[in-house]
Amino acid sequence: MFLVERLALAHGAQHTTRGKKVWAEIALPEQPLTRRQLPVHPRRAARAVARASSPAPT
């Protein structure tokens, strides 16, 4: 539970009639888009193109 507590954005537990239910929300790193995903995620695609075409900071 220590690792879950340190890595999770939020976590908790509930007692149910069948026992205990535990949950955790963990942020995943943003993955690069594949060509197949571009039509599905147009805003992410536009941001990726903008980042790739912007000059590197000096």
- The total strand number stands at 2
> What general form does the structure show?
elongated
State the major sheet: 2 strands, antiparallel
Secondary-structure element order, as H and E?
HEEH
Q: Spatial order of the strands in the main sheet?
A: 1-2
Global Rg: 19 Å
Q: Which residues form runs of ≥5 with pLDDT under 50?
A: none
Strand content: 15-25%
**Overall residue-averaged pLDDT value:** 76
Count of DSSP-assigned helices: 2
Distance between the termini: 43 Å
Helix percentage range: 25-40%
Structural class: alpha+beta
What does it look like?
With 58 residues, the protein is α+β, with helices and mostly antiparallel strands. The chain is 31% helix and 24% strand. It has helices spanning 2-7, 42-53, and strands spanning 10-16, 19-25. A hairpin with a 2-residue loop joins strand 1 and strand 2 (19-25). It starts with a helix and ends in a 5-residue tail after the last helix.
Layout: helices, strands, pairs:
Elements: H1 2-7, E1 10-16, E2 19-25, H2 42-53
Antiparallel strand pairs: 1-2
